[in-house]
Design goal:
The chain is an alpha+beta fold and 94 residues long. It is 35% helix and 33% strand. It has one domain (6-93). It has four helices and five strands. The protein has a five-stranded antiparallel β-sheet with strand order 1-5-4-2-3.
Length: 94
Amino acid sequence: MTDTITYPIPPLMAIKDDGGLALAAIAGGKVVDIRYLSQEDPDLEEGLSEGGLTYEDALRLWRESAVGRLIVERLQAQGDVRAGVCEKGSFEVL
C-alpha cells in the first residue's frame, strides 16, 4: 500500500474553487508553482467533469498538447513536476 503524498498550496497560488486536476512544481518539499487544468484548458476540464475522461486520459491529453508541453517546461525549470488533484488548499499527488 502506498502512502498518499499531499502538499499544502500556498494561499497566493490557490484558486477560488480550489478543486480539480493540476500540475505542480515541487522544490524543497513545497509547491513552488501550480497550473490548474480548469484555467489552462477549460475544454479538457469540461470533458473530465462530464465523465467522458479519466484523470489519466486528461493528463495525457494535456501533456501532449502544445500548451501543456509549454507548461511542463516552465514547471520543470522550477522543480519536479507532479500531477495531482487539488482540494481544500492541498495538492494530492496522483
